[in-house]
Amino acid sequence: MASLPTYEQMLKTTPLTAEMTRLERQAARTWPTESHWLTQFGLRDGQRVLDLGCGTGAFTHRLHALCPASPITGVDHNVAWLNKAQQQTPHAAIRWVEATVTETGLPDESFDWVISRFVLRFLPDPMAAIREAMRLLVPGGKLVLIDADDDLAAIIDPPIRPQTGHGPPWRDQSMYRAGRHLIRWLRQADCHNIQFQAIASHSDLLGLDAFSVTAWGDSASQSWQHDFVQNPDALILLMHFLACGEKSSGNSPIPKK
Ligand SMILES: C[S@@+](CC[C@H](N)C(=O)[O-])C[C@H]1O[C@@H](n2cnc3c(N)ncnc32)[C@H](O)[C@@H]1O
Predict the structure, then answer these.
(1) Which residues contact 89 (CB under 8 A, 6 or more apart)?
(2) pLDDT at residue 181, rounded to an integer
(3) Which residues face 15 on adjacent strands?
(4) pLDDT at 34
(5) Boundaries of each Methyltransferase type domain copy (predicted)?
(6) Low-confidence ranges of the chain (pLDDT < 50)
(7) Which of 77, 132, 214, 223 has the maximum number of C-beta atoms within 10 A of its C-beta?
(8) CB neighbours (10 Å) of residue 8?
(9) d(Cα 201, Cα 120) in Å, to the nearest integer?
(10) Is the dihedral of CA 13, 163, 2, 84 positive or negative?
């Protein structure tokens, strides 16, 4: 995965406000299902939660609403994103930390939950972030990885481009394949009780607006976007994955590289 564009490289062709809108709508769209599964996996109000790679906080704010008594921490290396996150919701209960996901500087065993959503796909070494998450978890704590996989991500009809048939235009240049690896990555980190779910969303239920089509791609995409949202037959079906594993509460050491 080393040759894939980082998140920052991907953003070079996307206006920041458009990306913020996209992240917010993405979180709004899938939160009902994601929060359902987090609760099923055992997330309870009062537990300490880390959102690793929190971006503009679209998901972090929802975690706070779900668990208002929980100390929630968001970590990201993009200080501009963190400032936006802080401005948007001045919840004192959310602590925002500027750091890389592979070296947060936070204390060992200080979280009951670590959740990383749509971040691993951008990392040259996803296991480095997972090792850091395991260091931060208490024994018995849960690690949740949420990501998509471009081979099983989208039906967009009519297609964006005949040659690809799916995905926003920047996907033409790359192939993000995090979704298929989530279970193996959790196993590699010695997690047990691994659970796995697919999260699907369809514009026929949610409306095309929920998919922020106009935030996809660059200005060259605008005529396609306009035609697409005006087309009464247009539809979007997106899918991503959620995997949860538990850190051993025995004496097994934190896995090394
Ligand atoms: C697609 S956004 C997802 C944001 C958020 N998790 C969400 O679901 O809305 C990816 C985020 O990962 C962050 N990120 C990427 N690589 C990172 C790294 N090495 N350390 C810290 N954050 C990173 C980016 O700054 C960006 O905020």
Answers:
(1) 57, 61, 64
(2) 96
(3) none
(4) 98
(5) 50-145
(6) 1-2, 162-167, 169-170, 172-173, 256-257
(7) 132
(8) 10
(9) 21
(10) positive
Token pair recorded at residue 15:
């206006």
Q: Ligand 1 in contact with 88 (CB < 6 A)?
A: no
Whose CA is closest to atom 10 on ligand 1? 119
Burial letters for 50-84: b for 16+ Cβ neighbours within 10 Å, e otherwise?
bbbbbbbbbbbbbbbebbeebbbbbbbbbeebbeb
Distances (CA, A) of 110 to 11, 72, 106, 239: 32, 11, 8, 32
Amino acid letter for position 89: T
Pocket test for ligand 1, best of 60, 64, 77, 125 (most atoms within 8 A of CB): 77
Atom 19, ligand 1: which residue's CA is nearest?
100
Q: Which domains does the chain have, with CATH numbers?
A: 7-149+176-199+240-246 (3.40.50.150)
Q: How far apart are CA 172 and CA 166, in angstroms?
A: 9
Q: What is the pLDDT of residue 1?
A: 40
Instruction: Please tell me the predicted confidence (pLDDT) of residue 2.
Output: 44
Sequence-distant (6+) residues with CB within 8 A of 234 are 157, 158, 203, 208, 228
- Residue minimizing CA distance to atom 8 of ligand 1: 117
Report which ligand 1 atom has the smallest distance to the Cα of 129.
19
Mutate to test the pocket of ligand 1, among 7, 50, 61 (most ligand atoms within 8 A of CB): 7
